[in-house]
Design a protein that fits this description.
- With about 100 residues, the chain is mostly helical.
- The protein has two domains: about 45 residues, no CATH class; about 55 residues, no CATH class.
- The protein is about 20% helix and about 0% strand.
- The protein contains three helices and no strands.
């Protein structure tokens, strides 16, 4: 039976354990690490760079943690925009129980 786990892109011996397709030993060596770009599957989802992308056109009027805010953030990520606008609402509102950040389903 063969081992189906990928091997290190540099030493071709050890099992991959780091984002660049490197084993731990090769990843620790900065001169080796610089030879390999981060594998695309290690960048998680649209807007992963959070500050990357074009700035959003309008600030989000919804409070932090609210369903409206989450919807706005996901639309920004899908559109390739930065997730935050300097004018976004910074308010955190409480639900009917008075607990901040908790919303009834």
């Amino acid at each position: 039976m063969t081992d189906a786990r990928p091997t290190c892109r540099h030493c071709l011996k050890c099992v991959v354990s780091k984002p660049r397709g490197l084993c731990w030993a090769c990843h620790r060596n900065m001169s080796v690490r610089e030879l390999y770009a981060v594998a695309p599957h290690c960048v998680h989802g649209p807007g992963a760079g959070s500050g990357s992308g074009t700035p959003p056109v309008r600030p989000c009027p919804h409070p932090q943690g609210s369903p409206g805010r989450l919807d706005t953030m996901s639309r920004r990520a899908v559109a390739g925009e930065s997730l935050w606008h300097p004018g976004d609402c910074r308010e955190i509102t409480a639900d009917v129980d008075g607990r901040a950040g908790h919303y009834a389903a």
